[in-house]
Amino acid sequence: MQEFILKSEYIELNKLLKLLNWVESGGQAGSLITEGYVKVNGEKETRKRCKLRKEDIVELENQKIVLK
């Protein structure tokens, strides 16, 4: 599993997907999130601006990352 070093208190889910280059645009990130393709800590997450904090695990298809 990959790690993402969090440099602030939190990061919004849609912004993380763009930073990781898992999506090509913010619109694509929003679509994947609202359609239920993204999991946070093993649960489907449909909030685009879900605040992620240290130790959260994000999954999209066969990609998985933990925030540190």
Compose a concise summary of this entry.
This protein is α+β, with helices and mostly antiparallel strands and 68 residues long. The chain is built from 2 helices and 7 strands, in the order ββααβββββ.
Descriptive report:
With 68 residues, the protein is α+β, with helices and mostly antiparallel strands. It has helices at 13-19, 26-34, and strands at 2-4, 11-12, 38-40, 43-44, 51-52, 57-60, 63-67. The protein starts with a strand and ends with a strand. A hairpin with a 2-residue loop joins strand 3 (38-40) and strand 4 (43-44). The strands form 2 sheets. The chain has a 5-stranded mixed sheet. The chain has a two-stranded antiparallel sheet with strand order 2-5.
Q: Based on the coordinates given, report the CATH architecture.
A: Roll
Mean pLDDT: 97
> Can you tell me the number of structural domains?
1
Main beta sheet strand tally, sense and closure: 5 strands, mixed
Helix content: 10-25%
* Global structural class: alpha+beta
**Would you list the SSEs in sequence order as H and E?**
EEHHEEEEE
End-to-end span in angstroms? 12 Å
Please compute the radius of gyration using only Cα atoms: 11 Å
Proportion of strand residues: 25-35%
Q: State the total count of DSSP E strands.
A: 7
CATH C-level class is Alpha Beta
Dominant shape? globular
Fourth-level CATH superfamily: RNA-binding S4 domain
Number of helices: 2
Which topology does CATH recognise?
Structural Genomics Hypothetical 15.5 Kd Protein In mrcA-pckA Intergenic Region, Chain A
Strand order of the largest sheet: 1-7-6-3-4
Query: Low-confidence runs (pLDDT<50, min 5 residues)?
Result: none
